[in-house]
Design goal:
The structure holds two protein chains of two kinds. By secondary structure, chain A is mainly beta. In chain A, 0% of the residues lie in helices and 60% in strands. In chain A, the strands form two sheets. In chain A, strands 2, 4, 5, 9, 10 and 11 form a six-stranded mixed β-sheet that branches. In chain A, strands 1-3-8-7-6 form a five-stranded antiparallel β-sheet, with no helix packed on it. The termini of chain A are far apart. Chain B is an all-beta fold. The chains are: A mainly beta, B mainly beta. At the A-B interface, strand 4, strand 5, strand 9 and strand 10 of A face strand 4, strand 5 and strand 10 of B.
Chain lengths: 113, 114
């Protein structure tokens, strides 16, 4: 079965610094990959998704992620952090015709002024 | 606002009790998913329904059950509640069965078992 590992349960960056949240996946077939964001006391919101088209995926709020098959990775980046980016971020994986989406444990991003 | 609604927002109950959580998917969405989010287990997929039929099961306990009604709303029933069932329960919906479609999450129901 597919799975996701998010490296680092907490990441802290300064405002204006690069954001890098790491995600590695395991899948026996080409995966579909997602990044979701959860703000306090809210549900999850999709940031971006990879569904076997372009390997560099651009999402909302200036985030992007690159699918690297050789590294089984789908890391999330943003060139310049904003205070409003403080939230929990989840990487998720699913497989074609498999209805079971697996989420990583989440990474809590803190942005320091 | 994702368009997915969940009621109630908060629920406080005692061990051994039974509760029902309700979810209304986005207009037109046929799939409904239930998730449990707790500090120790993270976000866990429980079960999926598609157009009234169960399609996939995740880490759902036998004490828990769900159904999707003809109007596509869904209910998650939790019985013989234990302290460890305290968690946020999310419902999500998507328009098609295949998982490459985005899932739209509701705001969640926070269940506290005392």
């Amino acid at each position: 079965a597919q799975s996701v590992t998010q490296l680092g349960s907490h990441v802290s960056v300064s405002e204006g610094a690069l954001v890098l949240l790491r995600c590695n996946y395991s899948s026996s077939v080409p995966p579909y990959l997602f990044w979701y964001v959860q703000y306090p006391n809210q549900g999850l919101q999709l940031l971006l998704k990879y569904t076997s088209a372009a390997t560099l995926v651009k999402g909302i709020n200036g985030f992007e992620a690159e699918f690297k098959k050789s590294e089984t990775s789908f890391h999330l980046t943003k060139p310049s952090a904003h205070m409003s980016d403080a939230a929990e971020y989840f990487c998720a994986v699913s497989e074609y015709n498999n209805n079971d989406m697996r989420f990583g444990a989440g990474t809590r991003l803190t942005v320091k002024p | 606002d994702s368009g997915v609604t969940q009621t109630p927002k908060h629920l406080i109950t005692a061990t051994g009790q039974r509760v029902t959580l309700r979810c209304s998917p986005r207009s037109g969405d046929l799939s409904v998913y239930w998730y449990q989010q707790s500090l120790d287990q993270g976000l866990q997929f429980l079960i999926q329904y598609y157009n009234g039929e169960e399609r996939a099961k995740g880490n759902i306990l036998e004490r828990f059950s769900a159904q999707q009604f003809p109007d596509l709303h869904s209910e998650l029933n939790l019985s013989s509640l234990e302290l460890g069932d305290s968690a946020l329960y999310f419902c999500a919906s998507s328009p098609r069965q295949a998982n490459y479609n985005e899932q739209f999450f509701g705001p969640g129901t926070r269940l506290t078992v005392l």
